[in-house]
Amino acid sequence: MARSHWLVKSEPFKYSWDDLVKDGTTYWDGVRNYQARNNLREMKVGDYALYYHSNEGKEVVGIAKVTRSAYPDPTTDDDRWVVVDVAPVKPLKNPVTLAQIKADPKLQKIPLVTHSRLSVMPLAKSDFDRILELGKNPPTRR
Prior knowledge:
Layout: E1 5-10, H1 17-23, E2 26-27, H2 34-42, E3 48-53, E4 59-72, E5 82-97, H3 98-103, H4 111-114, E6 120-123, H5 125-136
């Protein structure tokens, strides 16, 4: 079965990578955008997601894995919204900043660049792998 690849965004002061690591798993809640919600509905157990710190840091900091596919969001009575469960896989050796992503010619068309407000977005495997490649090496300082 082919896995899909995703990027999920969280403000670190609300729920950081370290919080996910400490908790071991969580449900991805608070999504109130229809496109992001539809992306959550497409996520399947075993899919990988890059964990991105938005607003503060603006960087990909880790890899998470979907452990439960979409189910009703327990934080609301509105049945339009769903969550998925995710668990940490591993941190990136070196976080990959938004500036690095925007500067990479291979990543110019990813949703993080073209639809920056979206909190849950699909990534092509090649784009997912490219970001991981960037995370293996420290960023060059100018």
